[in-house]
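Blinded run. Sample ID left blank on purpose so nobody reads anything into the name before looking at the predicted structure. Input follows.
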Amino acid sequence: MRNRPLKLAACCMAGTLLTTVPAYPVLAAPSAGISEYTSTILGSELNTSSVSAGVSTAVAGYLEESLASQRSSVEATQVDAVKASGAEASKSKAKKVSKEAKKSSQKEDQTDYKNMAVAQVNDYVNIRKKPDENAKLLGKLYSNAVATVIRKQGDWYKIRSGSVTGYVKGDFVVVGDEKLIKSVGVQIAKVNTTTLKVRSKASKKSEVLTLVPGGEELEVSSMKSFDDGWVKVAVEEGDGFVSSDYVDISREYTYAESRAEEEARLAIEQARIEAEEAARRAQEAAAAGSTSTGTSSGSSSAGSSDSTSSGSTSSSGQSVVNYASQFLGNPYVYGGTSLTNGADCSGFVMSVYAHFGVSLPHSSNALRGAGYGVSYSSMQPGDIICYDGHVAIYAGGNTVIHASNPADGIKYTSPANYRSVVAVRRIF
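Blinded prediction complete.
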């Protein structure tokens, strides 16, 4: 009878321990002291021999199991912490490498600029075979055109520009002026992916303005957001942003023209002018022959005389405008070159001039180097007007004809400077 209360007390003790143990091993210690804290618990407080006086073997086993689980969790936490620390270290190292690479790239750019020359003249400077003003003429370096300096020889520089290698007088070029060199060049972002989204803001969540196919070249408006992963570019819809991961940045310049290249260009232009003049005279002669009175004939003859005197560049340019006007209302298609089924701005200009035997690049940026430059105030019909990311043909009367956008297609727009004009190029 005396043993029964003792058994009951032992059972109560065991029950108390079983109900309180699960909360006992919970670790609230800071991570820095986790290992030490765990060791203390395992080595003393939860020593099986110290609790076996009032706890069954089953209880001791439960405690060991629970603690093993806690220890495993602690070790896993420590491993994760180490991994996280390593990831942060790698990220930091990557940033450092990227920064160093950028610095290295900048140094290389500076070195390149030191060996570059820019023509600073009203029209052009002659490139000669030898450092002598009487030496053979090899080509022309037009104003703001760029060349690579090979060496300096007295008052002359030996340069390479385009297909021409020769000497220019040092008085007519500026060498190593980084600011000037950058100002005469056009910074280009070439798409290196299949299709690139142009967004309204420097954010992946912003509106998509347009899609640009791989290989297309876009003019860079600003590089201020480059470090944040974005490049500001000019498109026909306005300024937009593209991810810097999907474009290759470069700078395009105008280079020298050799004598052979100049002669070929002038010959083509002259042949075209003569052909157009002959066709015009034939039309006027046919019209004069169809009249029945001498007065009409005389009037036609007088008109022919007047026209002949003005048969010049402007008449050739007007022929370009007349031809281009046939395609008003036709669709705008990005990357297209068809005057009937769809063309983009540069494709329209290229295809119009192709009708007259002129080969032009399918790029609004590259068209800035076509023909020769004229001032905005002296524009004539047929001149190519270059804007940021867009080109058009001047139609006269302060109006341009161009492949405007997908909504409007090929149309007239006035005034001609409805957008900021970057350059005016004359082909004829």
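Unblinding after everyone has recorded impressions. Confidence is low (pLDDT under 50) at residues 1-60, 73-77, 97-111, 294-312.
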